[in-house]
Amino acid sequence: MGDPGTNVREAVPAELSSFIGRERELTRATALLATERLVMLTGPAGIGKTRLAGRIASALVRSRGCDIVWVDLAGLPRGGGDPLEAELLRRLGGRAALLVLDGCESLGGRAGPFAARLLARCPGVRILATSQRLLGTEGEKRIPVPPLSVPAAAPDPARRHPVPEVAGYESVRLYEERARGADPSFVLTDRNAGAVAALCRALDGIPGALELAAGRAHRYAPAEALRRLTADPLGFLEGGAGRAGGADALRFHRLSTPEERLLWERLSVFAGSFDRAAVAEVCGFGALGPGAAGEALRSLAPALLTEGGAPVRYRLPLSVRVHAARSLARDPGGDGETAARRHRARCRVTAERAAGLWRSGAQREARALAVRELPELRLAMDPLAAAGPGGALEIAVSLWFLWAPCGLLAEGRRHLERALALHPAPRPARALWLAAWLVASSGEPEAADPLLVEAWSAAVQEGEDACLAYLAHTRGVVALWKDRPWEAAAEFREALEQLPEEPGFGPGPDALRAALTMALAHTDPASVPVEEGPPDGPVDLWARSRTGYAHAAVQRREGRPALARTELKRALEIQLALGDRLGLALSVELLAELEADTGRYEESARLLGAASRSRPGGAAAPRAERILRLRMDPGAFRAAHAEGARTPLRELLAQP
Questions:
Q1: pTM of this prediction?
Q2: Which of 121, 202, 320, 565 suits 64 as a labelling partner, its CA being 20 to 30 A distant?
Q3: Position 432 in a domain
Q4: What does the pLDDT read at residue 393?
């Protein structure tokens, strides 16, 4: 059986590497242990509970002269709980000491009574426990240990991350220090900072996983490590030893109840976060009904990552998810397929719900819902999954607003093109239209032409009048970017004539009327009503921003720059909130024209630089650029343009 006393030491384990972050948790724990007898550090495997417990214990030794007794429960021999309890009672009887119980999940349901008996029989003892589950002991104070801070994803994935933008985040600091320890030549640079930031996000800011990745710096550059992690998460994470390789997670799985193990495995079908309702809907079936799934989730919650808000959302760390997914896959045709099918059905409903919110005018809410559920929706848009390319295209078309008005053009194209390539003929008109629109909006009108032709034929065959209208709208978008507003106006008129009153998908009538108004602002400004003050406008916020652009263009022509700026500011606020990159490019270019009108040439050039990040590649040169090239020194223009291209747009717009 082994001697449980070998798991006990009267010293804090030595720190073998630097300690990063956790200042808030350290301060809170030391304060609580001054008044409370049982404080718990909870969190998933690899989050750093043991390291934090060691730092807390060391701080108390220095500040209060505490005696420390440290117990490694993870290494406790099977059946060693009773002998260990006797050993601790012998050591602690009559002493004032801090008892650290590290890895309480190893005792399963016995951990709570074990701690309670020690507290009752050793009145001078305080306990600091680490666990992936709550003990359920009266008076326990829980401190969740969160991931290390990670850099947010950049709006433009192609843009490089300057080192100062990411170097201050705890996860990046940890990775950099550990990578330098593995490879002394490693340096964080502008060239690899983006890959390091993405790797930190992919590994959830969990120190154990980050240390595993950083330990391979002598073999893989950050970009290569990220590629390997993305291609084979299980192989990458199992390439290390010990806790970082998933030993903690697997031990926790083995020690869980049958209901908890079942839920733990089913949760692996979620790629991102989920709330209690989603768990009941996707995982609550068969031997684990919705109610039992909710109870199991409550028990597992301390071992999950949590996200704020109401309702609370949870997430399986990648290091846990890949092991749980492997366990689920061991039963072909069983729980795994059922959970995946229920997950896809939920995603289809979510996409339709988001599209309905957009049509109703709740566009910020529609975007927020789609972005929050995007990891799940991406899974459901895999054309190789059981739903096939048809199911993937159905969801992708429902999310049309996320790809175009909300600026995720490149991602939308990838989903549509992959599913269309696998779809047997005839391919659906709606998906062909959307693919053509996204390709054209990306500045590749020639590449969109074959899709437009095929989509027109499919729309006629299917009787899809809305698709015919949207194809005209797409041709108008191309003409507008090529600075041929008269052609755009004709296409937009045709689109409005063909669009059903309630199309049921895609842009609504307000959006198409706004597109026509944009074209008319340059061809027939007298037909565009200019409103004084905030107009009532359409409920469609996206359409409202496009109409605002048109009004600003007319006001500039009529010599009212102050009103034009006010109108553009309203349009830009909407476009920034939605992430409408193409709308932002148009509005910022018009703002650059206003700056050029008043002789503020450098400011105008900087705005054009900012707009260049979003405008389609094949678009005609902005009008303001033609003015500036005539009035500015070429070197000065290039310098100001480059400065604007690397300056966040919000920062430029905030300048007086």
A1: 0.86
A2: 121
A3: no
A4: 96
